[in-house]
C-alpha cells in the first residue's frame, strides 16, 4: 500500500524499517479510505515516522500509549533537532498521531480510551454523567456542559482535597455563583446554576449531602419574555439563499441544508441526524429524529426543499455507505456532517451575502420560520407542532411579534391634558 503514495523505493524501505513500520501500510489505506489528499498523507506519514524514531530511542519498557504522545508533543517537539524529514509543527503532528492512534484502536491494537478516573472529582463526575445520560435522558453535549460546570464548582470548593459533601453550606454555592457572575452572561449563569441544582439533587438522592441544599442555589433574574425573538427579513433570507454556488457538490449540499433551516425551522443539531430513509418521496414527508427532545417530528417535504435535496442526491452527494443524508465532501470523505459544520455553513453564507446575524448560528433561521408562520395566520399550536415544542409556553414568546393582532387588543394610551 505504501507504493501507492510513495514513488521512491528508498522512502518505502525507510518507512518499513521504522519501529511503527508494520502499521504504516494499514495507515496509508486508512487515510486513503477517508479521502485525504496525497500531500496530507505524506505529511502524516512523516509525523508518524518522527514519533516512531523518537520512541525507539526511549526505554524498551515503555508502551505506545497516549502518555507517550503527550511527552513527544510537549517535551520533544519544542527542542527537536532530529534530521529531516521530521515535521515539528504542533497542529499537524498532533492531527497525524490522532488519526494513527484512531486506526490502531479501530483495528484492536490499542484499547479504547476510558474516561479519566484518577481523582475523587473524576470519579464523581463520571458517575454523575452516567446518571444524566441514563436516568435523565439528556443529550451527550448537555451532559458534557453540565459536568464541566460541576467540575469547576468542586475544584473551586474542595481543590485537590477530600470531597466533603456533608460540609457544604449555602455560602459555598453563593460564593461560586457570584464569582462566575462577574465574567459570565446572565444566560450562562442560569445554566451554571441549573447544573449545580441537578448535581445537588443527585447527591441528595444518594444521601451524600443535605436535602435542603438545593434551595440554596440562587435564582438568576432573567425575564424570558423581556425581548423580541430575533429574526431575519424576507430580503435577508433571499440574499442568504442566493449566496450558495449550486454548481458544485458542496454548494448543492449547503443550499439544501440552508433550505431545511429556513423553510422547515430545524435546529442545527437536527440536520446531521436526517437519514436517507427519513424521506418519503411518495407521501411528501420528512421524518426528523430530533436530538434535543428525542421525539421524531413528521414535517411536510416542501417543494423547494425536496427539489434541493433531490439535486444534491443526483449530482452532488459522494458515493458512500453512510446512510445519513448530508455527508462530508472532504476528509473524512462520506462521513456524516456535524452541528459545527452546519453553523459554519450559515456563517459563511451570511458573510458572502453581507447579512448581519443577530445570533452566531443557524438558530436565527428557526426564529425566522416561526415569525413568518405567525404573521401569516398560523396558530401557536401549529408553530409548536412544526418546531417540535412539547410545551406551548416555549412557543408563546413568538406572540409578541404578531404586531397587527397586538394592535387590535392594545388599550389606547391615555392623553394627559394640562389645565
Describe the structure.
A hairpin with a 6-residue loop joins β2 and β3 (296-300). The chain has a three-stranded antiparallel sheet with strand order 1-2-3. It has three domains: 2-106; 120-216, Orthogonal Bundle (DNA polymerase, domain 1); 234-405, Intergrase catalytic core (hpI Integrase, Chain A). It has helices spanning 9-17, 21-33, 38-56, 66-76, 90-106, 120-134, 140-158, 170-181, 186-205, 234-242, 249-264, 303-315, 339-353, 363-375, 380-387, 392-395, 403-409; strands at 279-280, 285-289, 296-300. With 419 residues, it is mainly α.
Quick summary:
The protein is mostly helical. The protein has 17 helices and three strands.
Note the main attributes of this structure.
419 residues, 17 helices, 3 domains, DNA polymerase, domain 1, 53% helix, mainly alpha, hpI Integrase, Chain A
Amino acid at each position: 500500500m505504501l507504493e501507492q503514495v510513495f514513488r521512491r523505493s528508498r522512502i518505502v524501505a525507510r518507512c518499513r524499517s521504522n519501529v511503527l513500520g508494520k502499521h504504516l501500510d494499514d495507515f496509508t489505506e486508512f487515510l486513503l479510505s477517508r479521502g485525504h489528499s496525497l500531500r496530507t498523507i505524506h505529511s502524516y506519514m512523516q509525523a508518524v515516522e518522527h514519533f516512531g524514531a523518537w520512541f525507539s530511542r526511549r526505554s524498551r519498557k515503555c508502551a505506545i500509549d497516549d502518555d507517550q504522545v503527550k511527552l513527544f508533543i510537549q517535551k520533544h517537539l519544542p527542542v527537536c533537532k532530529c534530521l529531516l524529514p521530521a515535521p515539528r509543527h504542533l497542529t499537524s503532528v498532533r492531527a497525524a498521531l490522532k488519526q494513527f492512534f484512531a486506526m490502531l484502536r479501530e483495528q484492536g491494537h490499542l484499547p479504547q480510551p476510558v474516561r479519566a478516573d484518577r481523582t475523587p472529582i473524576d470519579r464523581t463526575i463520571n458517575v454523575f454523567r452516567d446518571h444524566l445520560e441514563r436516568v435523565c435522558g439528556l443529550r451527550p453535549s448537555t451532559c458534557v456542559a453540565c459536568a464541566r460546570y460541576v467540575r469547576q464548582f468542586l475544584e473551586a470548593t474542595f481543590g485537590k482535597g477530600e470531597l466533603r459533601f456533608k460540609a457544604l453550606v449555602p455560602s459555598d454555592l453563593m460564593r461560586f455563583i457570584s464569582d462566575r457572575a462577574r465574567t459570565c452572561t446572565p444566560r450562562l449563569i442560569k445554566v451554571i446554576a441549573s447544573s449545580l441544582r441537578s448535581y445537588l439533587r443527585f447527591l441528595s438522592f444518594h444521601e451524600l449531602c443535605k436535602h435542603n441544599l438545593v434551595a440554596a442555589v440562587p435564582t438568576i433574574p432573567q425575564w424570558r419574555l423581556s425581548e423580541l425573538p430575533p429574526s431575519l427579513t424576507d430580503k435577508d433570507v433571499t440574499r442568504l439563499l442566493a449566496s450558495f454556488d449550486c454548481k458544485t457538490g458542496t454548494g448543492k449540499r449547503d443550499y439544501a441544508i440552508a433550505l431545511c433551516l429556513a423553510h422547515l425551522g430545524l435546529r442545527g443539531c437536527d440536520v446531521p441526524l436526517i437519514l436517507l430513509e427519513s424521506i418519503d418521496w411518495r407521501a411528501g414527508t420528512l421524518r426528523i429524529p430530533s436530538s434535543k427532545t428525542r421525539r421524531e417530528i413528521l414535517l411536510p417535504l416542501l417543494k423547494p426543499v425536496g427539489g434541493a435535496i433531490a439535486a444534491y442526491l443526483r449530482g452532488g452527494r459522494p458515493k458512500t455507505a453512510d446512510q445519513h443524508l448530508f455527508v462530508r465532501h472532504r476528509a473524512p470523505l462520506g462521513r456524516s456532517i456535524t452541528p459545527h459544520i452546519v453553523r459554519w455553513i450559515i456563517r459563511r453564507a451570511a458573510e458572502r451575502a453581507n447579512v448581519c446575524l443577530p445570533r452566531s448560528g443557524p438558530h436565527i433561521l428557526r426564529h425566522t420560520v416561526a415569525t413568518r408562520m405567525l404573521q401569516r395566520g398560523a396558530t401557536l399550536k401549529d408553530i409548536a407542532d412544526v418546531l417540535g415544542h412539547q410545551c406551548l409556553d416555549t412557543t408563546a414568546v413568538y406572540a409578541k411579534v404578531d404586531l397587527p393582532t397586538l394592535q387590535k387588543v392594545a388599550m389606547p394610551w391615555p392623553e394627559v391634558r394640562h389645565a
